[in-house]
Amino acid sequence: MLGKEFGGSGTAKIDITLSEGWVEYRQALELVVLSDWPRALALLAEAETTFRTVDDQHGLWRALIGQALLHWREGGASLAIARALAALRVAEMADDGFAVGCVAWQIANMSLAQGDYRKAADYFDQAQLALDAVGMAPPGGVLAGAARLCNEIARWQQMCERQQIGRREAELAAAEIQRDLTACLNQAARSIRAAPAAFAGLNEGPGFFLPEPPTLLAMPEAVLPRPGLSGWLTRLWRRLVQSGDPSVVEGLVHVSVPAAPEIADPESGASSQDGQAESPAALAAAPAEVVPQAPPEPPLAPATPGRHSPAAPQPPAAPLSAPEQPRPAARAGLAISCFGNFRVYYNDQPIDRWESARGRLIFKYLVARRPSSAPKELLADRFWPESEPELARRSLHQAIYCLRQTFKRVAPEEQIVQFVDDRYQINPEIAVWVDSEEFGQMVERARALSAAGKLEQAMSSYAVAVDLYSAPFLAEDRYEEWTEEPRRTFQAMYLEALHCLARQHYERGEHPSAILLCQRALAEESCDEESHQMLMACYLAQGLRHLAVRQYQICANTLKVELGLAPSEELESFYRRSVAAG
Predict the structure, then answer these.
(1) Which one, of 427, 133, 418, 403, lies nearest residue 277 by Cα?
(2) pLDDT tens, 482-498?
(3) Neighbouring residues of 351: CB distance < 8 A, sequence distance ≥ 6
């Protein structure tokens, strides 16, 4: 049926042993059916924590997109999109083209509901690309068609903004295009409803949220793998980086540079040239049919009683007065992930085979030092501390040679690693995107916005930051001394972001969201007393005193086992005053 409906071919089943997180996930399914949204969200957060712990990516993206749609239903658009973007990144890491396509489709719908036609176009294109790669796209290229129509509406908006045409003329043109867009999206929705088994993985994959009704499909005993992403993985990641508001995109846009004159390398005689860069990245199912007159729900609006699902994202009236958002052009270059396992991409191609393990480690060191360079003596001493100076220098030359050979396979005309003034560096004329650098910039931006009293913008930047942080910095090199300081710094920034977001949601009375963030903090640092205390406060606010007592016991036991300490006086005082007294 899969191949019949969508032109694809079936794939062999891979039996999997469901991890513990699926228990919470199954319970969340049942609560969603009962319209118990807060408890369902809390269970999905617990499932997410477990899936992260056991590295179950198939479960993780489902838990994330489930949270995204519940947040969307509650009017929390910013948090919903941040969770959906996290689901997209995990789906890519799982190499699941079907998952990437469905998540991208849902993000496109969210963007439409917010009137962001440019962003919606990007994600419709991405969904078409991903689903085409696994032979599961709706027939006729309707998602790509929707992308073209979104871009056309944005073009009319731009011409009106520039006063190239009259407002009335632009409104009439946009309204006509919008009717076509509505028909296109309805056609896509009908094609999916006509083949529900295909989009349920033939009922053999763990389910995901459908806009109507808001249920998760039945629990599986097996998963259908849908590979085929490696050729376009970094293009999808670029879409993630470029899809934010202009202030988020700022600093990520890589511009092309003219070819630089060759620079002789005094050590190897090789030459270097410039490059260009592109950033890597990272579902819910098909949309309901579109009714263009229905306005989108405002962000952070209270949920309507008795509603059973997130509102189907619908194209709003084109806001012709809105300024055009910049769309950075796609460029070639390096895209590097330092959180978790180290991953490098050059111009859409993953660097998955390294000529030398020591050369790869040196490259990590150069990435971590960016934009500074490293003296050759420092590298020789750090990586060959027990060797004689001359032997260490020769070993360094050999490692650098192997490193350059690695990159030569994908960039034969570029020299990624330069040698200038007795120092090694990543070629500064090659544009580079590094997730840890972007994470740090987002946290710094959030701090500045918070200090300026722009709390909503600060929380949006913090949300972007926490979803960039997928695992500790260079986790595979935790025993390398030079990685310890940046790892601790990034971890502290991550916990800071989670604390600020959790506190904001708690003050708004959004306790399930605050619980989710605290659980993420404790998954990173189990002795984080601030998160334990916030969890206790959230449970008390929901009348769940027994859970608050249990959380205190978990905290006290963890501190004793891990650090040999008792809870702080502040936490003890809070417990006596707020929990035990109740």
Answers:
(1) 427
(2) 999 999 999 999 999 99
(3) 344, 345, 406, 407, 410
